[in-house]
Design a protein that fits this description.
- The structure holds 2 protein chains of 2 kinds.
- Helix content of chain A is 39%, strand content 15%.
- Chain A is an alpha/beta fold.
- Chain A folds into 2 domains: 27-72 and 151-230, Rossmann fold; 85-144, no CATH class.
- The longest helix of chain A has 16 residues, at 164-179.
- Chain A is globular.
- Chain A starts with a strand and ends with a helix.
- Chain B is mainly alpha-helical.
- Chain B has one domain (2-283).
- Chain B has 14 helices and 2 strands, in the order αααααααααααααββα.
- A two-stranded antiparallel ribbon of chain B has the order 1-2.
- In chain B, a hairpin with a 2-residue loop joins β1 and β2 (244-246).
- In chain B, 39% of the residues are buried.
- The chains are: A alpha/beta, B mainly alpha.
- The interface between A and B is medium-sized, with 36 and 29 residues.
Chain lengths: 230, 285
């Protein structure tokens, strides 16, 4: 991805000769396919391009070259609750975020009770979000995303939200989602989670696919490579 | 551009939700809530009536209504441009998280301000009704009021066009919003809101230049619209000028037509510019 913007007019006017434009190529010519109903995990060190990859798939960036084809509706689970407004109630935020994720207002209305139940917020759903704890916000964000009827979930390090019980519930929901033919792309540093849920694993390094295969062998190689660095 | 409009149509539910959210947030923590939308035009009228009708006594009947008729659309234009300037930066966490047509953000700002304009006109007509009840001899309502939706459409198109440009530029250069607030402040004096267009037409400077200054003045579509709103909503009135009493000018439909064309061009150009810039919003450092 490129890093092109100029901080302000001041920078533009005063430093136009050496403005801090830096083009960073994060992902360099990677090719892979994910089939319907598959769960693919992406591992790699910080800055390898994992999150950029998910953002590209969520259509937040346009690729500078190459193409990507996505069939079906994508629901990103990146940074849960980013779209919440603190002064609005949980329910009002559910409406807005549900529509952002591609539901109609009528569909959100149908699911509101299910979302409130899944997030375990119950009557707190009518309280302003600014009164929520971070666990409550994460739970609500997760509940909206899994009730959005997406075909593809993009998960960025968020499977461990809330307490142990809620985590188990999230796992079950994800399993259910997969049984119904949903596709998942998962970025995680949590190797046990990957071995548990993923069918396939991609190791990204400096923007290239370093290795691709079953989670067990990729993670074994990844650990072997990482340990000397520690 | 057709492709982008189709995409926007697919996301119409989101646009509606965004407008609802913006209207909710505005008065969320206030006791009067949505009533505040009425308080602003009412308070404005009260002060204007006191100053223009009572204190200044400039000889114009019901002067505050003439000011309000032009002030409401001007406020709509100003608030929608200034609100939308910040609309993308304000929602950047969301923009960075998920895809939706980015133009929905400035559009929602314009539409929620448009709803306030509608409420403002409700107050305006209630005030006219009040005037009529107090002085039943003169009917203050004009038949030309039927043109109001057409003028509001032009105002809307112009606001959308400028909002798209300003919101896209402000995402890169935050100086733009400060420039715009200065520009809006100055624009207020360049529009016939607190004074009458006939005053401009009858100054020595304009008469000596054979109407050139008047034409230049009306190059500004907001000035044309301010005058047109006043003329379709209220009865024509002779105005005192340094050169004596000036007869009211008729509604200048040629200028209104010009404002319509220029607004449409600004909207099309603004949308193109926005579409070219919108993919870079998330890459702003």
């Amino acid at each position: 991805m490129t890093n092109t913007a100029i901080g302000s007019l001041k920078t533009l006017l005063l430093w136009w000769k050496r403005r801090s434009v830096m083009r960073l190529e994060v992902l360099k010519g990677i090719t892979f396919e994910v089939g319907k109903g598959e769960c693919v995990a992406v591992v790699g060190r910080n800055g390898a391009g994992k999150s950029t990859l998910l953002s590209l798939l969520a259509r937040i960036y346009l690729p500078t070259s190459g193409c990507l084809e996505v069939r079906g509706r994508v629901a990103p689970l990146l940074e849960l609750g980013a779209g919440f407004h603190p002064d609005l109630s949980g329910a009002e935020n559910v409406f807005f975020n549900g529509v952002v994720l591609g539901l109609t207002r009528a569909e959100v209305k149908e699911r509101l009770a299910a979302i409130a139940a899944f997030s375990e917020l119950h009557d707190h759903i009518y309280a302003p979000v600014r009164t929520y704890s971070s666990g409550m916000i994460a739970r609500l964000g997760f509940a909206i995303a899994v009730h959005a009827d997406a075909d593809i979930l993009l998960v960025d390090e968020v499977l461990s939200v809330g307490d142990f019980e809620f985590e188990q519930k999230c796992r079950r929901k994800i399993e259910e989602f997969r049984e119904n033919g949903g596709t998942i792309l998962l970025v995680s540093h949590h190797h046990e989670t990957i071995e548990e849920v993923a069918d396939r694993c991609i190791w990204l390094q400096h923007g290239h696919i370093h290795m691709e295969g079953s989670p067990q062998e990729v993670l074994k190689a990844y650990r072997a490579k990482s340990e000397p660095d520690l | 551009m057709i492709e982008e409009l189709r995409e926007l149509w697919r996301f119409r539910e989101l646009l509606i939700s965004m407008v609802q959210r913006e209207l909710r947030i505005r008065y969320k923590n206030s006791a009067l809530g949505f009533l505040w939308s009425f308080v602003n035009p009412l308070a404005t009228t009260a002060v204007m009536t006191l100053v223009f009708n009572r204190l200044l006594q400039n000889g114009v009947e019901n002067y505050s209504a003439y000011v309000l008729a032009a002030y409401l659309p001007f406020m709509f234009f100003q608030s929608s441009v200034l609100d939308s300037a910040q609309s993308i930066l304000g929602s950047l966490p969301l923009v960075k998280k998920i895809y939706f047509p980015r133009e929905i953000l400035p559009l929602a700002s314009v539409i929620s301000n448009f709803i306030h304009l509608l409420l403002g006109f409700v107050v305006f007509f209630l005030l006219l009704l009040g005037v009529y009840i107090l002085h039943p001899k003169v009917v203050p309502f004009q038949l030309t009021t039927i043109y109001l939706p057409f003028l509001m459409l032009i105002s809307f198109i112009l606001s959308v066009g400028l909002s798209l440009i300003v919101s896209a530029l402000n995402t890169y250069y935050e100086d733009v919003k400060y420039m715009m607030s200065v520009a809006m402040y100055l624009l207020f004096f360049l529009c016939p809101v607190m004074y009458f267009e006939e005053g401009i037409a009858n100054t020595n400077m304009n008469v000596h230049s054979h109407g050139l200054w008047f034409k230049l003045y009306n190059l500004n579509p907001v000035a044309v619209l301010s005058d047109a709103y006043r003329k379709i909503l209220l009865a024509p009135q002779p105005i005192h000028t340094p050169n004596g009493l000036a007869q009211p000018l008729p509604i200048m439909w040629n200028y209104v037509g010009y404002a319509f064309v220029i607004s449409t061009l600004i909207m099309i150009g603004g949308y193109r510019m926005f579409n070219r810039m919108k993919w870079g919003f998330v890459e702003r450092p």
